[in-house]
């Protein structure tokens, strides 16, 4: 029995020893399966390197492709403008397809090339180093330091030397022979084209529209000689054409606006050598003429400039003739939104600027009016679009006027624009008093001083009241549904009042009222007897021309009959309740 017990103890001890020997081997296998921290770090690093290699591979492939590419011809960032070729034609004989802007719009917005079997490859223009007006858009920087300084449209095929041992390409000698022969091959140059609309008229409106010319291809602008040269072999028909780039046609403008000539060059050697090349279109216009008057600033320059250039979305260069620094500074917020490039003073610049696309002059509709038109305004810009553009330019907050009753206790604000010269409102204080008595919060101000500050004041109001004149142009800053009250002087001024301010107000979604004064409310009653033609036949004065009309009817002052005027104020209150 003792021996059996001893034998059992011996077997148990042996089993325990075997177990102890197996445990380290089991732990070793577990340790082998569970890597330590150094090994884990090495695996993570390897994974990261693999991920980085995957991300860099496409970039390296692209870089290699660029290095190995045999073609280095570059395409300009803007599509060419494809206009009527050769002779300058008018809208009357151009047909439906030759509108002022129709072909221009097709070239620049739809991306379609010119007709024909071969679409020309436009030359790549370099960056734009010109900074003639440093106060505008200082943040705009040149994006490409390598400029082409001559616009000869030579687009030879270039290649890179490639080792045949590394690439499997033909031997190097063969490739070099190909490059030498290819260097003499020229890609077809884009045809230069000119289209001028110089006979456009507005039916029912007494003014002819101004001439506007659009050029594409090899176009060289020379401010020093007030000229534009277009390379057009065998096409000399534009020779001698001169354009006043101001958006109103008027014989009185001749000494006030600089003319710009257009000439054709038979070859590139006959054209002036480019000193600066641009990769954006150019618009050349004048701020001479009648500018300085707010009505003409808007109707003759800024609204036509918006219609002409807004579609470029800032990628356009402005050349300004009859340059006035104070004018540029006054309207800088609008100009900066229309062009992201510095303005060039056309009167003092001596460089030769090369473009693929140039517009000389501005597209015009009517005074303070924009309407859809298949050729002049194919994008359908409206005065509502323009007023929205103004609100963004000047940071105006109100887009809608007060509706009476929406905010209990809040009075509608009225701005009465006063005048210092002619057509003064002689009893202005009494007009303000009766307006306050009817419930208006009245402010009186001249349309002068800082434009942004005055625009903000106008935008804060719900009613604008003024005697016929440029001050009413400030209705462009009113919020929608506001009320405009025009006091129309004596002398059959109905047509001027309605077309210059009434119709534009409706086009801006404003409510419009007219108050026609009687002869007793005019200062003309103290200057002329009652049997004078001024009272008996005012249209006879109109028949004598603008000078007679301006000397008589435009110089009168107004003293309102408050009892007669009161219903107009009540009507304004009614309109604000709608």
Describe this structure in words.
- With 578 residues, the chain is an alpha/beta fold.
- The chain is 33% helix and 14% strand.
- The protein has 16 helices and 15 strands.
- The chain has helices spanning 2-33, 37-68, 102-108, 164-167, 172-182, 294-309, 325-330, 332-338, 383-394, 428-437, 451-459, 494-507, 533-536, 538-543, 546-552, 562-576, and strands at 193-197, 212-222, 227-231, 241-243, 260-265, 276-277, 282-286, 317-321, 344-345, 353-360, 413-418, 441-446, 463-467, 483-488, 511-516.
- The strands form two sheets. Strands 1, 2, 3, 4, 5, 6, 7, 8, 9 and 10 form a ten-stranded mixed beta sheet that branches.
- The longest helix has 32 residues, at 2-33.
- Mean pLDDT is 77; it is low at 1-9, 21-34 and 70-185.
- One of its GO terms (molecular function) is pentosyltransferase activity.
- It holds the Pfam family Glyco_transf_61.
Low-confidence stretches: 1-9, 21-34, 70-185
Count of DSSP strands: 15
Count helical runs.
16
Overall mean pLDDT stands at: 77
Structural class: alpha/beta
- Gross morphology is flat
Relative strand content:
5-15%
Report the helical percentage.
Answer: 25-40%
Rg on CA atoms, Å = 37 Å
Distance between the termini: 121 Å
Q: What can be said about the biggest beta sheet?
A: 10 strands, mixed
């Amino acid at each position: 029995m003792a021996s059996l017990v001893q034998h059992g103890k011996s077997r148990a001890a042996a089993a325990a020893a075997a177990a102890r020997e197996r445990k380290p081997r089991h732990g070793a296998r577990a340790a082998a399966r569970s890597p330590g921290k150094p090994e884990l770090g090495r695996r993570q690093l390897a994974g990261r390197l693999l991920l980085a290699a995957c991300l860099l591979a496409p970039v390296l492939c692209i870089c290699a492709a660029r290095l190995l590419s045999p073609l280095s011809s570059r395409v300009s960032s803007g599509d060419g403008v494809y206009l009527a070729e050769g002779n300058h034609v008018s809208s009357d004989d151009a047909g439906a397809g030759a509108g002022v802007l129709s072909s221009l719009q097709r070239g620049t917005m739809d991306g379609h090339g010119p007709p024909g079997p071969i679409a020309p490859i436009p030359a790549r223009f370099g960056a734009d180093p010109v900074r003639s007006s440093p106060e505008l858009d200082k943040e705009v920087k040149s994006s490409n330091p390598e400029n082409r300084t001559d616009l000869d449209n030579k687009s030879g095929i270039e290649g890179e030397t490639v080792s045949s041992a590394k690439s499997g390409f033909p031997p190097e000698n063969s490739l070099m022979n190909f490059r030498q022969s290819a260097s003499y091959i020229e890609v077809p140059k884009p045809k230069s084209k000119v289209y001028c609309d110089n006979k456009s008229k507005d039916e029912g409106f007494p003014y002819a529209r101004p001439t506007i010319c659009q050029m594409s291809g090899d176009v060289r602008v020379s401010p020093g000689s007030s000229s534009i040269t277009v390379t057009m072999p065998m096409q000399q028909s534009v020779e001698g054409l001169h354009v006043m780039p101001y958006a109103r046609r008027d014989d009185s403008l001749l000494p006030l606006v600089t003319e710009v000539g257009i000439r054709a060059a038979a070859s590139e050697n006959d054209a002036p050598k480019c000193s600066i090349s641009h990769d954006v279109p150019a618009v050349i216009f004048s701020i001479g003429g009648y500018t300085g008057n707010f009505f003409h600033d808007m109707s003759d320059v800024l609204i036509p400039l918006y219609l002409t250039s807004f579609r470029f979305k800032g990628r356009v260069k402005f050349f300004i003739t009859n340059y006035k620094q104070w004018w540029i500074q006054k309207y800088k917020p609008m100009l900066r939104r229309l062009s992201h490039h510095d303005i060039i003073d056309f009167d003092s610049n001596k460089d030769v600027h090369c473009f693929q696309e140039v517009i000389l002059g501005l597209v015009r509709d009517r005074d303070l009016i924009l309407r859809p038109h298949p050729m002049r305004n194919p994008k359908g810009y409206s005065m509502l679009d323009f007023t929205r553009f103004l609100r963004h330019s000047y940071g105006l907050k109100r887009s809608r006027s007060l509706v009476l009753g929406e905010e209990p206790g809040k009075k509608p604000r009225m701005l009465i624009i006063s005048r210092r010269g002619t057509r003064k409102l002689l009893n202005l204080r009494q007009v303000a008093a009766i307006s306050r008595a009817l419930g208006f919060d009245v402010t009186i101000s001249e349309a002068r001083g800082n434009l942004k500050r005055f625009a903000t004041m106008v935008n804060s109001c719900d009613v604008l009241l003024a005697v016929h004149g440029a001050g009413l142009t400030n209705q462009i800053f009113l919020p929608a549904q506001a009320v405009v009250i025009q006091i129309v002087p004596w002398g059959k001024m109905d047509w001027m009042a309605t077309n210059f301010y009434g119709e534009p107000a409706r086009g801006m979604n404003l409510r419009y009222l007219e108050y026609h004064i009687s002869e007793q409310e005019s200062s003309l009653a103290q200057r002329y007897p009652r049997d004078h033609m001024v009272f008996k036949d005012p249209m006879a004065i109109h028949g004598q021309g603008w000078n007679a009309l301006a000397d008589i009817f435009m110089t009168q002052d107004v003293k309102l009959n408050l009892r007669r005027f009161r219903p107009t104020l009540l009507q304004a209150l009614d309109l604000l309740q709608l």
